[in-house]
Amino acid sequence: MSPASRRALVSQQRVLGIDPGLTRCGLGCVDIDPRRRARLVEVGVVRTSPGSSPEQRLLAVAEAIEDWIARLGPSVVSIERVFAQENLRSVIGVAQVIGVAMVAGARSGLDVAQHTPSEAKAAVTGSGRADKVQVQRMVTRILRLDSPPQPADAADALAQAICHGWRGGGSGADDVGEMVSAGGAVRASARTPAQRQWAAAQAAARRTGAVDPRRVRR
Q1: CB-based contacts of 122: which residues, under 8 Å, 6+ apart?
Q2: Active-site residue identified among 19, 31, 119, 156
Q3: Is the pLDDT of residue 190 over 50?
C-alpha cells in the first residue's frame, strides 16, 4: 500500500450510530478524523407503526439500516447497549432491534460496537448523567449544526457515533489502548491493521496538539 493510500485510510473514520427502538430508531452517521474533529454525514429516524406486526416492523428497521450502510459506507456500526427498564415489553423490542442492527452490520462485513447510554453521554457532555437536552445541545455544538437534531433519538444516535469515534477507535495511550466492541475489550495487540493505523494516527494528532471539538468556541 502506498503512503498516500495509508494516509487516506486513516484520514477519517465513518461511524454509523444507532439508537435502537421499535417505534423510533435513531440513525446518525458522522465522519471523525484523527484529530477528533467530527462532521455530520446524515441523521434521521426510522419510524414503525405499533399497529403493524412485530416482524414487519423489524423488517422495516432492518431495511432502513441496510440502506444507510449501502449508501453511506460506514467503517463501523455502533449501537446503544440495552439497559434495564421496568417495561419488559419495551426492553424486548429494543433488544430485537439491536439484534437486527448487529446482523445488518455483520452482513456488510463491518465491525459492530456497543456503548451504554452513560458512555455516550459522558463522551459528548462530560457527564454520564446528562439529560437529553444537554446531549442535543452538545451534539449540535460538536457537529457545528444550525439547530439541535430532532427528535432526541436522532441526537442519541449521533452521540453514540461520536462516542465510538472518540473512545472506541484507539483512545488509550500510544499503541496500548483498548477498543471496546460488541465482543468486549480488544487489546492493541489484537487489533486489525486498519485499527492499528487509526490508533497511530490519533496518537500522532495528540502529540502535535489535537483540539478537542468539545472546546471549540462558536
Answers
A1: 128, 130
A2: 19
A3: no
